[in-house]
Amino acid sequence: MWQRDRDAAPVGVRKAEVVQDAGPVGQARSFTDPASGNPAWVVRPDGNTFVAFSAVCTHAGCPVQYDPSRTEFICPCHGGVYDARTGQVLQGPPPAPLQRIPIQVVSGQLRVDT
Length: 114
What we know:
This protein is mainly beta. 0% of the residues lie in helices and 39% in strands. The chain has one domain: Rieske [2Fe-2S] iron-sulphur domain (Rieske Iron-sulfur Protein, 3-layer Sandwich), CATH 2.102.10.10. The chain is globular and about 40 Å long.
């Protein structure tokens, strides 16, 4: 769920909430990257750690899906596999890791610059 938070940012800089609740450890939530308009994922690999990545496979542009049992992103088009903690390619044809999206925790909410 995205909501603009214009009051918390200096003039000329906008912030957007990623998710109010990123869920339990090992889970992920999908969202739309406000900077690109592309699908994205935020993952909670442990405790207070949150990472976000573009959901666009670097091989053919297909949307990757999250597999919580393996903490990996899987591309259904050509079998690419990415580590959901780092975005690094683990298997298959992708030539590069998933693009990382910088996020921060502000007042208990996950936010990304837009």
